[in-house]
Amino acid sequence: MIDLYTWTTPNGRKVSILLEELGVPYTVHAIDISKDEQFAPAFLAIAPNNRIPAIVDQDTGIRMMETGAIMLYLAGKYQKFQCEGPEYWRMVEWLMWQMGGLGPMLGQVHHFVKYNKGKSEYGEQRYATEGRRLYGVLNARLAGRDYIAGDGRGQYTIADMACWPWISRFEWQEIDLNDFPNVRDWYLRIAERQAVQKGYSVPHFTTEVPMP
Fold first, then answer.
1. pLDDT tens across 141-187, in order?
2. What is the distance between the alpha carbons of residues 178 and 85, in angstroms, rounded to a whole number?
3. Do residues 13 and 74 both lie within one domain?
4. Can you tell me the distance from the alpha carbon of 163 to that of 154, in angstroms, rounded to the nearest whole number?
């Protein structure tokens, strides 16, 4: 049994989508970051960086924070949604790209473009430009491919599950997915999955999955 501590953010949805895809039992604990619940001492004991999501594996006693580590742990434990051989490291490469680039930079787009528009023209331009550049990187990677990693046309893995929730906020980022047709097709392909739709609404429903 997995205890998932999470909220309705792209980072939180990465792990809830993976758990739904795995089809394993898990218990959801909502950590309302709008009320600073991530700073509660009980959550700090699980996630020393005070960020959601985090998990506790009741089977092993392992407590874990940071989505990349959590996703690698769960994919490894259940031996699903990960590549084998050399492509394993290609999957890890793109997972780290999301962790170090796509997520943090799009998070800055949200900060400057959605929540603080008009306060810093420099910040808006800098991060909107970088966001579009990263969309372009992903669009190029998906040329002739269904998924980010894997041989041939690719294999649906945790690399896709890590990136998809950030792309699902394309409206916040003022991105027209039609400008990035490979990303658009990949996004829609994943959005149709029942586990993705269920994981998107953990710990509670906010909106339907956004559609371009």
1. 999 999 999 999 999 999 999 999 999 999 999 999 999 999 999 99
2. 34
3. yes
4. 15
